[in-house]
Design goal:
Length: about 200
């Protein structure tokens, strides 16, 4: 009885993958999600369209993974300062002001695109929203375990909403990009008090 060899799937090196993701983000900033095509990504990255589809399945998956890849390295689990304030500040400090400004512009464009693209929303939930929610839950559970936050505090379920809201509202209300200084003061004035956590 002869064994059938499994279908070969070409491996993309981590360096090549990072290069592809960077090109996707550049194209997104230039033309936006709706005008971005797999043909354009293939041309920009000197890849075959077949390879892109084989590796990522489609545009939504590729964009969601590119955005996830561009986020500051490491998981939340690597941040454990011993206090919720310290952990939230450390998370914020992983991106400098320039990166925040770029990410803010990119996310505004993608937020618009998500409304008209169910595939993009699904990919975002799978690769960005759900993993980040899970990481926030673990970070908050540590604060509960330390006795900083009560387990029944209703604000626990809204921490991600608060963080994203502060990030997005900065541009809409103040017409200025989010900065480390703004987000650190927002955490101290809004997020920690809502959770009943120590701010000193």
């Amino acid at each position: 009885m002869t064994e059938v060899a499994p279908a070969r799937r070409s491996r993309i090196t981590p360096e090549r993958e990072a290069e592809l993701y960077e090109a996707v983000l550049d194209l997104l900033r230039e033309v936006g999600y709706d005008a971005l095509t797999m043909d354009a990504v293939a041309a920009r990255t000197r890849s075959s369209k077949a390879t892109l589809y084989r590796q990522w399945g489609g545009k939504a998956e590729l964009v969601a993974k590119a955005v996830r890849h561009s986020k500051p390295g490491g998981s939340f689990d690597e941040i454990d300062t011993g206090s919720l304030k310290g952990d939230l500040h450390a998370l914020t400090l992983r991106s400098d002001d320039c990166e925040m400004e770029q990410n803010s512009a990119l996310m505004r464009g993608l937020a618009m695109a998500v409304h008209g693209n169910p595939d993009l929303l699904k990919a975002f939930k799978a690769h960005l929203i759900e993993p980040e929610m899970a990481e926030f839950r673990r970070l908050l559970q540590r604060a509960v375990d330390r006795g900083e936050v009560r387990a029944d505090n209703p604000a626990i379920g809204f921490v991600m909403h608060m963080m994203i809201g502060g990030f997005a509202a900065r541009t809409m209300i103040d017409e200025r990009p989010p900065t480390q200084e703004f987000l650190l003061s927002y955490i101290d004035a809004v997020v920690l008090p809502a959770l009943g956590a120590p701010i000193h």
